[in-house]
Amino acid sequence: MDPSETPLQWLSIPNRSGTNNRLAMRYRRGKGEPILWLGGFRSDMDSTKAQAIDAWAEREGRPFIRFDYSAHGITGGDFSEMTLSVWLEDALAVWTNLGDVRPVIVGSSMGGWITLLAVRERARLGLAPPSALVLIAPAVDFSEELMWKAFPEAIKVEILDKGVFYQPSPYGEPYPITKAFIEDGRRHLLFGAPIEPNAPVHILQGMQDDAVPWSHAMKLVEHLPLSDCNLTLIKDGDHRLSREKDIEMLLRVIPA
């Protein structure tokens, strides 16, 4: 292990049965407001952006927390049994574990959707909001808006009849999209009503993103209070936004 790398820890989630009741996480200690990373769909805590923030946090002496959702990365679990509700519960458990602090949350892709859902749930429970949100290509409502609505009729029929469709992936083996995942996503849709982030928001969005179109980010902005929201469009940026200049921009917008 690199001497600068934070050691692997395990966070137990109470009242959950099965193989995914512990989350793999890394918690870099420091001073000031902690930064909490919420990664994307089928990503993990060792992604390029997460590691770049970790290295920056080490230099700046800032606390930084990253973790693997259930059935992602090191954390155990059967991906075919996963729903957004499970991953939202994961995020809330990690946030609660931080105690009485107001983190800066950096949510990437699906992590942007989960971030906003977690903020809403914390508000419902009367718990402290975050201090700021940084959302990277936020895939709000993606199971419905970017998956289901984009599927041809044949795939929709396969999901409804067989309960699962295996989506080809350029990054490895096909992965399951289940009927349960689609139906659960519908219980968490945010578009169609004002979204209260309870904190300032800065969105970074590539205009060459082929997974989350930049029009999707504009739609999110329309649902957020304008006084608390900034949007940076990166004209030549793709979905990953992992180039050196993208990382530099990301680090600049994380509040000090």
Question: How would you characterize this protein structure?
Answer:
This protein is of the alpha/beta class and about 260 residues long. Helices cover about 35% and strands about 20% of the residues. It has helices at about 50-60, 85-95, 110-125, 140-145, 155-160, 180-185, 215-225, 245-255; strands at about 10, 20-30, 35-40, 65, 105-110, 130-135, 165-170, 170-180, 200-205, 230-235. The strands form two sheets. The chain has an eight-stranded mixed sheet with strand order 1-2-4-3-5-6-9-10, sandwiched between helices. A two-stranded antiparallel ribbon has the order 7-8. A hairpin with a 2-residue loop joins β7 and β8 (about 170-180). The mean pLDDT is about 95.
